[in-house]
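Field reference: "sequence" (input) and "structure" (output). Example, V-type proton ATPase subunit C:
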Amino acid sequence: MSKNTFFLFRLFVLLICVFQVYGQISDQLPQGWIRAGSKPDEYQMGVDSAIFHGTAAVGSSGFIKSLSGVNYSEFGTLMQRFTPKEFKGNRVQLSCFIKYENILGNAGLWMRVDTPKEQTLDNMLDRPIKGTDNWTEFTNVLDVPKDAERIAFGILLKGDGHAWLDDCKFEIIGTLDALVVISDELIKYDQSFESTAFKIVDILRTLLQGDKFIIC
């Protein structure tokens, strides 16, 4: 084998190794997803076709990974948003599977509901993802009013770490009308109880009139 042939053979093997290591990771975002956050440029985001949830032979997941020198006071997020449509007037649960490695800051699944007057957000700050673990299901639950304009959701990372997101789904777990009815019934019950209590106190005052009893 000539030196030139041997060199080309080694170059070919090297290119195969590079493709195997890096060819399964792409900075191209999953369809419909966007980069956002206070410092999105400090995080790599894209598609990983080598790591995904489930047992299928072929698949992919979205990922977010901190770059060197990341600022721990800033965050990046891989996210998307859509018009609620069939979710309006319902209590909605978002569930996703997340795999994570070496989360030294914090990560979280987040969901936000936007109306003309306000935004409602759950970003898991009260239960942050830290450390390393295999695929784990996380959930957010929010009410989606009838005037909701959009739902936004995604995975956020603040500080060092690497996280993958896969198999996200939305489910209706209750209607807001039913919740209002239950609340009204509780109010009626409270009012009835209060009225009955005052009547009992009045009766006791009458029965105990003249005796040294104190009724608060």
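Residues 176-207 form the longest helix (32 residues).
The chain has one domain: 24-175.
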